[in-house]
Design a protein that fits this description.
This protein is of the alpha+beta class. The protein has one domain: 3-Layer(aba) Sandwich (Aminopeptidase). Helices cover 32% and strands 36% of the residues. A hairpin with a 5-residue loop joins strand 6 (131-141) and strand 7 (147-155). The chain is globular, with a radius of gyration of 15 Å.
Length: 157
C-alpha cells in the first residue's frame, strides 16, 4: 500500500509525545525491536525538548519519531512504526513530517544511524533520499553482549 493509500484509508495526525503516551510507545518499542529503547530514553527525550511526535489515528498510536536539533542539522534518533501498521506507508509519512520540521528549524542536513542488518529500514531511508555516508563500528548493542555496526545516512532537506 502506498503512503497516499494508507493516508486515505486511515485518518491520522501528529501529536507531541507526552507522558500519557509512554505505555503505548513502550508496547510498540518492545514488539518492534530486540534491543528496544528504555522508558528512560523516551522520558529524557521528552524532558529535554527533543522533537518527539506520535502519529495517531484517533487514540491509537501508529508510530512515533524522536529527533534533535544541532547547529544547522537535525538528527533522527528513533523512528518506529507499530509492527501491525508496517508496510503501509506510515514511515514515509513520518519522514516527510520530519524533513519538513528540520527545514523549518534551519537544518541543512538530517542525519541518522541505522543497524547494518536492518535492510528494510535502510531501503525505506534510501527511497526517501537519504544517502549512505559512513559506518560506525560497534554502535548498537546486540544479543548476548555483542555489538552491531551502524550505517550513517544523510538527507539534505
Amino acid at each position: 500500500m502506498s503512503s497516499a493509500t494508507a493516508a486515505t484509508t486511515l485518518e491520522a495526525g501528529f501529536t507531541p509525545l507526552a507522558l500519557r503516551h509512554l505505555d503505548a510507545v513502550m508496547a510498540i518499542e518492545q514488539r518492534a525491536y530486540t534491543q528496544p529503547w528504555s522508558r528512560g530514553n523516551f522520558l529524557d527525550s521528552i524532558n529535554v525538548g527533543y522533537q518527539c511526535q506520535g502519529l495517531m489515528a484517533g487514540e491509537h498510536l501508529l508510530g512515533y519519531f524522536v529527533a534533535m536539533m544541532g547547529v544547522q542539522e537535525a538528527h533522527l534518533l528513533n523512528l518506529t512504526v507499530a509492527p501491525e501498521h508496517q508496510r503501509q506507508g506510515w514511515a514515509r509519512v513520518m519522514l516527510d513530517a520530519l524533513a519538513l520540521w528540520a527545514r523549518g528549524q534551519g537544518a541543512r542536513a538530517l542525519w541518522l544511524e541505522v543497524r547494518v542488518g536492518n535492510d528494510r529500514a535502510r531501503a525505506v531511508y534510501a527511497a526517501h533520499g537519504f544517502r549512505t555516508v559512513g559506518l560506525r563500528r560497534g554502535y548498537y548493542p546486540a544479543a548476548q553482549g555483542r555489538r552491531e555496526d551502524a550505517v550513517v545516512m544523510c538527507l539534505t532537506p
